[in-house]
Amino acid sequence: MYLTIQGIVLRVTDYNDRDALLTVLSRNHGKLTLKARGLRRKNSPLIAPCQLLAFGEFTLFEYRGQYTINEAHSIELFQNLRRDLTKLSLGTYFAQVSEVLSQEDLPNPELQSLLLNCLFALSRLNFPEMLVKAVFELRSACLAGYTPDLFGCHVCGSQTPDRFDLSAGQLECHGCRSGDSTGIRMPVTAGMLAAMRYISLCDPKRLFSFQIGEETLQKLSSLTEAYLTTQLERGFSTLDFYKSLLI
Questions:
Q1: How many of the other CB atoms lie within 10 Å of CB of 159?
Q2: Do residues 58 and 80 make contact, with C-beta atoms less than 8 angstroms apart?
Q3: Which helix (H) or strand (E) segment is 130 a member of?
Q4: Cα separation of 121 and 132, whole Å?
Q5: Cβ within 8 Å of residue 230, ≥6 positions away
Q6: Are 47 and 79 in contact, with CB atoms under 8 Å apart?
Q7: CA torsion angle for 80, 82, 85, 91 (degrees, to 10)?
Q8: How many angstroms separate the CA atoms of 19 and 155, rounded?
Q9: Residue 135 in contact with residue 197, Cβ under 8 Å?
Q10: Which of 19, 56, 179, 227 has a C-alpha 20 to 30 A away from that of 149?
């Protein structure tokens, strides 16, 4: 049986001397593992559409639940991204997160759209890396079911809370924290809170239609990173590599 999908390559793994396995995030079929025959050969026609972070159309042959690429065509290769190592490493981090959050054969069009929009923002629109990173981290956490409660202190209801509980995903005031409470809190400002509310609730097509100061953005990026990794209870090697390039 043949199947045609549009997907973005999240990971490429060597299978043998000639072939490779791709992890691809598709719109209607979720995460798929595809065998790319001959991909490791120098003149393979699959090289461009089957590279990491390539978005393309794939014609697949399915047999007993296994998929082999019969034909592939590139739709977007994000060439500008590939000319900048830090941006490329950030995009690879987005891909690794997407692989963790997606499931086999479970449609996830929102996550695919988020990933594509963020790669496009890095490659074509030249938005600041920290801005794209913060948007991706918080919005992907929301799509994974970890939408934070951002509507006031969870204890007293104050609209001017000054800290965010990474484990509980909720706001609180300094005076509302009990002595025996556990978990890590990070400071949050009014500007950070406004940005977090916008990212969490806005139309997907307007994810980057807000403004934020550089100092506030730095703090926001640190918070969204800590929130995502806390909720997923894991780190990411690609994130570590990206951050090593900034030193």
A1: 10
A2: no
A3: helix 129-143
A4: 7
A5: 166, 167, 184
A6: no
A7: 90
A8: 56
A9: no
A10: 179
Burial class (CB in 10 A: 0-12, 13-18, 19+), 6: middle
Whether the Cβ atoms of residue 105 and residue 94 lie closer than 8 Å to each other: no
d(CA 6, CA 56): 6
Contact 139, 200 (CB under 8 A): yes
- Rounded to 5°, angle at Cα 201 from 196 and 206: 95
Tell me how crowded residue 96 is: count the other CB atoms within 10 A of its CB: 17
Determine the distance from the C-alpha atom of residue 107 to the mean position of all C-alpha atoms in its chain, rounded to a whole number: 16
Domains and CATH numbers, the chain: 2-76 (2.40.50.140), 80-245 (1.20.1440.120)
Q: Which two tokens stand for residue 185?
A: 């809190």
- The span from the CA of 83 to the CA of 87, in Å, is 8
Amino acid identity for residue 27 in this structure: R
Which of helix, strand or coil describes residue 76?
Answer: strand
Bridge partner residues of 114 (DSSP): none
Q: What is the pLDDT of residues 12-50, one digit of tens each?
A: 999 988 999 999 999 999 999 999 999 988 889 999 999
The neighbouring-strand residues paired with 66 are 63
Which residues have C-beta within 8 Å of that of residue 33, sequence separation ≥ 6? 21, 22, 23, 24, 67, 104
Structure tokens at 12: 């490429």
Over residues 139-182, the pLDDT tens digits come to: 999 999 999 999 999 999 999 999 999 999 999 998 887 666 67
Give the Å distances, CA to CA, from 185 to 144, 161, 169, 226, 227: 21, 12, 10, 10, 10
Entry pTM: 0.95
CA–centroid distance for 5 within its chain: 20
